[in-house]
Write a structure and sequence with these properties.
- Helices cover about 45% and strands about 20% of the residues.
- The protein is of the alpha/beta class and about 190 residues long.
- The protein has one domain (about 5-185): Nucleotidyltransferase, domain 5 (2-Layer Sandwich).
- Strands 3-2-1-4-5 form a 5-stranded mixed β-sheet.
- Helix 1 packs parallel to helix 2, helix 3 (about 110-115) crosses helix 5 (about 145-160) and helix 4 crosses helix 5 (about 145-160).
């Protein structure tokens, strides 16, 4: 039986900089396909920023044909206006995925950090360093938003993929540690 390949697009939404990362998963092997940022800070119109997020996300989907999309949820901060803008950016990126029938899963920033580093309070730099170790790429991107998008994709893989395919415990809850151990037996110490 041939091992199928799955492509996961991860997105860190933002209204000034949107980070993305795309990985290919074949069996237990993860490979970086692309990561980068979409800069929006030169656009002064909020509606134009949202249109650009939609178009650029759609472009990534059309170029890489991801099987699943993982997106970082906006964190709850004190600035309501920032929260609204981030929520809109996330919604537009999700709409692009829905437009192309790509299943979407949302993860909290804490969940993504926990999944990548084992510490839900890890810094962006710690997440970037662990991703570099896991995927073996040389150059750290100039914007950590790119590694944040990549982290969403890797987290999604570690969590067992789409909600439909994730293993479940009795009572219907996802078993994230079981999914992680099943997917990564080589990462357990002897």
């Amino acid at each position: 039986m041939a091992i199928s390949e799955k492509i996961i697009l991860g997105i860190d939404p933002g209204t000034n900089i949107m980070g993305y990362g795309i990985i290919s998963v074949k069996g237990k092997e993860m490979k970086l396909l692309s990561m980068g940022v979409i800069t929006l800070d030169k656009l002064d119109n909020q509606a134009l920023k949202l249109k650009t997020i939609f178009e650029k996300t759609l472009g990534l989907i059309e170029q890489y044909h991801p099987d699943e999309l993982a997106i970082e949820a906006p964190f709850f901060g004190k600035n309501v206006q920032s929260m609204l803008k981030l929520g809109r950016a996330q919604g537009v990126a999700m709409a692009a995925g829905l437009y192309r029938s790509v299943p979407i899963t949302e993860y909290s920033p804490k969940k993504i950090k926990q999944s990548i580093t084992g510490n839900g309070n890890a810094s962006k730099e710690q997440v970037a360093a662990m991703l570099q170790t896991l995927l073996g790429y040389e150059e750290t991107p100039s914007y950590l938003d790119a590694t944040d998008g990549l982290a969403a994709a890797v987290c999604h893989h570690f969590q067992g993929g789409s909600p439909e395919s994730a293993p479940r415990k009795a009572g219907g809850r996802k078993s994230s540690w079981k999914a992680f151990v099943d997917a990564n037996p080589e990462r357990l110490s002897q």
